Amino acid sequence: MPVAVTVIRAVERLATVVGRLGSLLLIALVGTILVNIVLRYAFNLGLIELEELQWHLNAVVVMTALAATYGEDAHVRVDLFHDGFSQRSKAWIEVLGTAFLFLPFVVTLTLHAWSMAAYSWQLGEGSPMPSGLPARYVVKFVMFAGFALFGLQGVAVLIRSILVLATGDRRYAIGHALPETTPAGDHP
Q1: Which of 30, 35, 42, 110 has its CA 20 to 30 A from that of 160?
Q2: 184 lies in a domain?
Q3: Total domains present in the chain
Q4: How far apart are CA 110 and CA 116, in angstroms?
Q5: What confidence tens digit (pLDDT) does each residue in 104-134 have?
């Protein structure tokens, strides 16, 4: 169990750091949007570079926040009954949903994102617009890295849920702080 907790802590620490760093780009995104609006409506000047920069910054913010949001259990849930379930039932739902839905989906997305980023790098892809941004492969690589970290977070959630089922300790549940000590009988 100590190895599992170490893996969870490492993945969640990485996801949190990446998410916080990515969230700093929100300031640049808002600034870019404001400059774009002022230039467009006050000076009748539209710049493709600013439009594309908005899209790229938004993509980076979203891709860097995915894993942290999932790890903090701050994501939107479709299941209307989830809050009323016992901790054990929630853990079973997480195990089954993560293993059979989430991970296959995210692995597929990650592989496709890698193919797109590699191909874009190979082409030296930039914007199709003459005044657009160069190096479009950078944002595509961020997409790949974001999905890869999202998948790692899914593995951490899966391990957490298995620990809830194995120990009955709700502190292992997604969104909770991990216990500093392991249950009686387990030694670090």
Answers
A1: 110
A2: no
A3: 1
A4: 10
A5: 999 999 999 999 999 999 999 999 998 889 9
41: exposed, middle or buried (Cβ count in 10 Å: 0-12, 13-18, 19+): exposed
Evaluate whether residue 180 is within a structural domain: no
pTM over 0.70: yes
Lowest average pLDDT, out of 13-22, 37-46, 60-69, 83-92, goes to 83-92
Distance CA 77, CA 178 (A): 22
User: Is-contact 45 36, C-beta < 8 A?
Assistant: no
Q: Which of 76, 73, 77, 64 is nearest to 15 (CA)?
A: 64
What whole-number distance in Å separates Cα of residue 65 and Cα of residue 22?
7
Q: Is residue 109 part of a domain?
A: yes
In total, the chain counts a number of residues equal to: 188
pLDDT at 1 over 90: no
91 within some domain: yes
- Cβ-contact 91, 165 below 8 angstroms: yes
Q: How far apart (Å, rounded) are the C-alpha atoms in residues 115 and 144?
A: 9
The overall average pLDDT reported for the chain is 91
Q: What residue numbers bound the domain in which 146 lies? A: 2-75+82-172
Interacting residues of 173 by C-beta distance below 8 A, sequence separation 6+? 87, 90, 91, 160, 161, 164
End-to-end Cα, the chain, rounded Å: 8
